[in-house]
Amino acid sequence: MPKSLATLLIGLFFGSTGASANWQVPDKLFHNGNEYYLLTNPLENYFAFYPDKRPKSTSIFSPNLSRGYVATFEIIANELFVTDIVVEELMGDSAVRKSVIHDVFPDQSPYAMRTFGGILTAAYGDVVNLVDEGYRSTFEHYTVFEIKSGKLIKEKSFELAAFEKFKDRQFELFKATEQYKEYLTMMKDSKMSNDEAEMFIKNLGLDVMPRIQED
Questions:
Q1: Phi and psi at residue 131, in whole multiples of 5°?
Q2: Alpha-carbon dihedral of residues 147, 153, 159, 161, nearest 10 degrees?
Q3: N or C: which end of the chain has fewer CB within 10 A?
């Protein structure tokens, strides 16, 4: 099993599900004057490869922020940037927010995500169904952004019902790709059954896909 692929899937699992029994505070994305809740954590793949770069919080562990930080992203001139990374630190008896982006990326802030590629799933509007687990809650509206080498390639917006159908169709199309077969083999090598492996990959959602699949 290639270490890079295993690391990628682990990062995708933690980044796309929140990997927690509690709801998670989302990262934020700004685009064309709109603010979105990101239902994935794009920096988790980076920290999977560079764990020494992960921000350290001195505050009491929060079950609703298991990754320990909140990142803010912005698409500027069709390019994805990290504009801030915030942690909580203890000052006396109080927790205060502190920006640590210059500690993570000392030579470039905002940091251009030029090595990032894939689909970002973002939500906005009211919560339709609140689920106390990771990013499982549903919202009124969704936008998916296809990113390649840090550049915005495509975006699509949906109401909730249409988004659910879109996700299902995307997974069916993804199953016909070589990348899906590679992921499936890797999961089965880790002693999962075929059905378990397929469900694991499906639960990763759109974030496991390199691009929006077209019919």
A1: -120, 125
A2: -70
A3: C
Rounded-to-10 torsion of CA 86, 87, 89, 95: 80
C-beta neighbour count of 38 within 10 angstroms? 21
Rounded to 10°, the helix 3-17/178-189 angle is 100
How many domains, in total, are found in the chain? 1
Q: Whole-model pTM?
A: 0.85
Q: How do residues 139-164 score in pLDDT, each as one tens digit?
A: 999 999 999 999 999 999 999 999 99
Start-to-end C-alpha separation, the chain: 31
Contacts of 94 (CB under 8 A, 6+ apart): none
Give the pair of three-digit tokens for residue 147.
């990113």
Within a domain: 206: no
Domain that holds residue 74: 3-160
Do residues 17 and 202 touch, judged by C-beta distance below 8 A? no
Distance (Å, whole) CA 174 – CA 104:
34
Residues with Cβ within 8 Å of residue 167, at least 6 apart in sequence: 205, 206
